[in-house]
Amino acid sequence: MTRVGLLGYGIAGRVFHAPLISSTEGMELVAIVTANPERQAQARAAHPEAKIVTADELFELDLDLVVVGTPNRTHVEYARRAIDKGVAVVVDKPFAPTSAQAQELVALAEAKGVPLTVFQNRRWDSDFLTVREVLGRLGDVRRFESRYERWVPQVWDNWRELGAPEEAGGLLYDLGAHLVDQALQLFGPVRHVYAELDLRRPGVQVDDDVFVALTHENGVRSHLWANAHAAHHGPRFRVLGSEGAFVVDGLDEQEDALDAGRRPTDAGWGAETRTGRLGVVDETTEVPVERGAYQHFYAELQAGRIPVDPAGAVHALRVIEAAFTSAHENRVVTL
What we know:
This protein is an alpha/beta fold and 335 residues long. It has helices spanning 11-22, 37-46, 55-58, 75-84, 99-112, 126-134, 175-187, 254-259, 295-302, 310-329; strands at residues 2-7, 27-33, 51-53, 65-68, 88-92, 116-119, 141-149, 190-198, 209-216, 221-227, 237-241, 245-248, 275-280, 283-288, 333-334. It starts with a strand and ends with a strand.
């Protein structure tokens, strides 16, 4: 068995990591770190086989894998501690507050021969898998549009809403980490970055309205949106090619399913009735979305493969940093 220790039991740990680890054949969740009494009770109820420990206690255990699902400001510290102990590590996105810190972690892991990966679960979203499937039917792709838009008019009492740089808060670091990663996965490295960042809601300290335009080295342009104050939501994806387009609305349902207590081992996991539209103007056909498959991340890891190359996460952070520079200096940034 792969003995796993989980740092953090907020949304990342409770909704994503703990259920996925527990659903992966050959993995055993043996310890969970959370100081919050309510979350401790939740963890004990959902995972009675796991000990509730402190971070220092976790690093004294005999573990094969450490998963870092804590606030962004602690990612580097905990990842480095795991690597120094020679224990494989998964770091939730964003990998680190800066690309320089992320690169240091990659170099350290390589020097010590420790497996290191980044939790980019939305590479296994149903709609993203569908986009990958239909790309070859669009001719030469010219423009890729991707959105995470929400209606959250009140600012949360959460570290993601704090403005200190070490928190790496705001939507560009949060949802933007997924948006940028997906664009890089589809169309490769980026040459130019332009961004607009705004603070829309009363009392907000960090960006809650994000637009990023990327020009990839192959000429494809990606337009990415994230918004916490969108009273109407645009399509999740719109891809325009020389021979057709693909459009899909709505969001992958796996997060809600995990939050409701469903697991990838359940019958019908990842299946949706949602469809996209493929074709030209009014001459389109309905395309069922692929089955979502978040479970593949830990299954790949258990099989001895790195599901997400951390070097790609370093490049994504450089794109995010360029977007901040672009927005603050009102210019296009060349990478």
